[in-house]
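Notebook entry, structure prediction.
Reason for the run: the old model in the group folder had no record of what sequence produced it. Starting over properly, with the input documented here first.
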Amino acid sequence: MFGSNKIKAKFIFEILGKPPEHIKNALEEFINKLGENKGLEITSRKVHEPKPLEDKNAKDLFTTFAEVEIKADNLNTVFAIVLNMLPAHVEIIEPEEIKLNNFDLSFVLSDLSVKLHKYDEIAKISLLERNKLLGIIKELEQKVQDLDSGNNKDKKEKVKKKKKR
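New structure, fully documented this time:
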């Protein structure tokens, strides 16, 4: 698909987590997995040292990134990487121009559409579950309030009985 010329591309992959040595190892394993793809050759890779995240709310979290250059047999492989491995950045280095036919472009757009529908489904399910949980929380809050007001009523009655004595 997508012509017979090899595609040279550069990807940047980012990762966030802790501890720093774990995220660096995970990113290296991720790149090794990328290199196992048929029709793809990793020509260079550089994994940067993890740095603490500069967000005060994200204590003890680290971030790092890797720059990876590849040669792919076709543009389809590049699209598959983008859709399945979600790089932070993609740059096509060579060839300078790419000729596409409508069948090949339709194939890629269909893959993209399927992926987007899956994410949309996940988002909708998450919203439904969130709303259900919020409903349960409101019910529990009401029960706690009812218990508190019942306890307060009992306490007031006990105070009245003590005063009468």
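Summary: Strands lie at 7-17, 40-47, 51-52, 62-72, 89-94.
The old model has been moved to the deprecated folder.
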